[in-house]
Design goal:
170 residues, alpha+beta, 10-stranded antiparallel beta sheet, 41% strand
């Protein structure tokens, strides 16, 4: 019995020393630079060399990256007119067109590389149905984080470029 107790103590001490000296995953993996909530500061679109507001004079948007590698992004123009009917499903053609062209919302999963920097995403749902199931790599989308600021560069399939400036709020 005494030998059994000594063996258990020795094994426990060896295990404790091994765990204490082994580097943990958190210590060796780079911090995910995207995690948090980001507020849109500005958004510009550059068709044919023009630099115009992508979401009006008062862009309004949030982008959230979770630690479990999910994201949700909603971009709107704060000056989009309200629907006269006050019912979402009863907008006129003009009201619906205006709402659709002045905002977008989508969500999905994302990946980061060994440096904790954005490496890609996959859209699982969107207010623009053509994006559902699409993936983006650094070739189409870059997110550059410097402190609490992030710059997003996105290129649409036809070549139009969009730049969005974000500020971390959480």
């Amino acid at each position: 019995m005494k030998d059994k107790i000594m063996f258990i103590r020795s094994a426990t001490v060896a295990l404790a020393i091994g765990l204490a000296s082994a580097p943990s995953f958190a210590q060796t993996a780079a911090e995910n630079k995207l995690v948090g909530t980001w507020r849109m500061v500005s958004a510009t679109i550059d068709p044919d060399g023009q630099n115009i507001p992508a979401y009006g004079a008062r862009p309004n948007g949030l982008l959230v990256f979770t630690p479990d590698m999910r994201f949700v992004e909603v971009l709107t123009d704060a000056d989009t007119p309200r629907f006269a009917s006050d019912a979402r499903g009863e907008g006129t053609d003009d009201e619906n067109r205006m709402a659709m062209t002045r905002g977008i919302g989508f969500f999905g999963t994302y990946t980061v590389d060994e440096k904790g920097e954005f490496s890609g995403n996959r859209v699982e749902g969107a207010t623009f149905p053509n994006w559902v199931g699409s993936t983006r790599t650094r070739e189409q989308l870059t997110l550059i984080v410097v402190g609490d600021r992030m710059t997003e560069h996105f290129q649409r399939p036809e070549g139009t470029r969009i730049q969005i400036e974000w500020m971390r709020v959480q």
